[in-house]
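Protocol step 4 of 6.
Sequence for Sigma-54-dependent Fis family transcriptional regulator (Azonexus hydrophilus) entered exactly as in the expression construct, tag removed. Do not edit the line below.
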Amino acid sequence: MRTHSPVPAPQLRQARLKLLEGSDFTDAAVDERLARSWRRSLAAGLTPTGRLAIPDNLSGKELGRALGRNHELLSHSRPIMEYLFEQVRHSHSMVILADNRGVLMHTLGDADFLGKAERVALMSGACWDERQRGTNAIGTALAEAAGVEIHGDEHFLERNTFLTCAAAPIVSATGELLGILDISGDRRSRHPHTLGLVNTAARMIENRLVVDACQRHLRLHLHPDPAGIGTVAEGIVALSEDGWIVGANRNALQMLGLASADIGATPLFRALDTRLADLLEQARRRSGQGLALRRHDGMSLYARLDGHEPRILSVPATPAPKKDDALSALDTGDGRWRTAADKARRIVGKDIPLLIGGESGVGKEMFARAAHESSPQRDGPFVAINCAALPENLIEAELFGYVSGAFTGARKEGYIGRLREADGGTLFLDEIGDMPLTMQTRLLRVLQERQVTPLGGGTPVKVNFALICATHCDLPAACASGRFRSDLYYRINGLSLNLPALRERSDFAALCDKLLAELFPDLPVDIAPGLRQRLAAYHWPGNLRQLASVLRTACAMLDPGDTRIDWQHLPDDILAALQAGTERPSTTSTVLPAQDLATLSLAAIQQAIVDHQGNLSAAARQLGISRQTLYRKLKTGAGQ
Ligand SMILES: Nc1ncnc2c1ncn2[C@@H]1O[C@H](COP(=O)(O)OP(=O)(O)OP(=O)(O)O)[C@@H](O)[C@H]1O
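Step 5 output, structure tokens:
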């Protein structure tokens, strides 16, 4: 556990003996970390010459699942492990990747050493947690969350003392310990630079993971020396659209004086003497050249800005004060969503109609309900009508009601209609752009006169409701082409808000946690970190509705007692999309070009219809969209 020359074996053996006798063994031979590790080994019930209590290799099936869970880590580590192996080839060594439980995932080794290694279970599926194998580089690096070298007799178990090992942790963009990279070899092959080599390789893997996980974010590549940017020593910071640090590698945390717990909880301006808007302005002025930054203590840092330009800069750089209402209960941290909620809060109860735009499934109806529940009329009814789903010949009767015997098939006692049902509460007209023109005229009259006349005559009845409309379509364009009455458009558009598509949101992880907590309030289900990153990069044509449906299905696939969603639990269509690489590609914009998106959506819809032998309802269910939405998307080439 050192970078200088190893301590002679007899001295170490004597210190270990003292430990076993319960006397003080700490002296120059045993550094602090090694002493801690030996004590942990002893506390786990191990003795240096004792036999392993339980055979701990994972079965083939368990290993397969572990490999699935660590898919991202493995795919980024493999090329670097191969490179590393080239450096140590013919030195009786092997390169090992272990997961965050110490289970060996992948090994590359010299043939002559592999046989020896297998005898002590240095092979895929074996677990090298300290509690099972005593002090060893992999287990101890995990326990200490730091790079360590364990040489010869520093190993707690006698059977492992022929080894020399150096291991370094691999940490995710959000500070989670993902696994351990290790070089193990015959103790005679020890090289003083091995730990440095492993540490560097682990940082290279981390940098790849951070860039991959934060593809859709603006990234700051930092170093105190301009020449350090782009090297393994660079710091990488990912920023949300509203200027919060949402990911970072360990180099960056060190450069900014932050801890991993600060990721997601720190705005950029708290770490650096700049705000996101100033940074972007500087980047624009210096077009492509490096940026000069300063920490609050005056230390200079140089940076390069990479990734996507935020689309919205007008969001507040500090989080809005926590509001205890139904809208804040839906707030999972996205800047654009929060801005929309703040605006909605200002108009509720003020007789200003709200018009909510956004793609299908972004949560327009949930937003409308929450706006109602955050309003003074929250104790009144919330009446939701989907204008696209109502058959044209029934819509009039449904909305305005009718008197007894108004038409064949009408209820004997008549019907007051949905508009009157909303009296004293909120009327939510979903897909208002799909309302037939004749109906638009009647609705406009109701909104102007504030009274409803039922079909078949009868006296007009006063109504009083707050109005919220939602649409996926471009209403100004519909007005221009005569499909929507512009006087109605102005009447319903007191305040218009656009909710962001899921792929544009910066709070994917928090959103998943919220959905999972809602689905399983009593079970702490989570998503394997690698998979979560890939899901975050997917383009989600069905938005939150699709995400909720995928998580629901994945949860249903969990074995009893399992609480982690991984690749094998995903529905086939998502799995295929992720494997085919149809996640959001890293373009220079946070949003896919509309044309590409339409093509992808259409392809996904057509595939779903084929998968379900033409059954549109089943295809819509699989995609997590309504049947009407599926029809519409087919009609428009998946454009809206
Ligand atoms: N904030 C949220 N938290 C949790 N789940 C949400 C949220 N918003 C939406 N969802 C999920 O997405 C589904 C669709 O939401 P909603 O019906 O509000 O979307 P929409 O934009 O009105 O869709 P459409 O345009 O197709 O009518 C909900 O049933 C719910 O499962």
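Step 6, annotate. Residues 507-635 form a domain with the Helicase, Ruva Protein; domain 3 fold (CATH 1.10.8.60).
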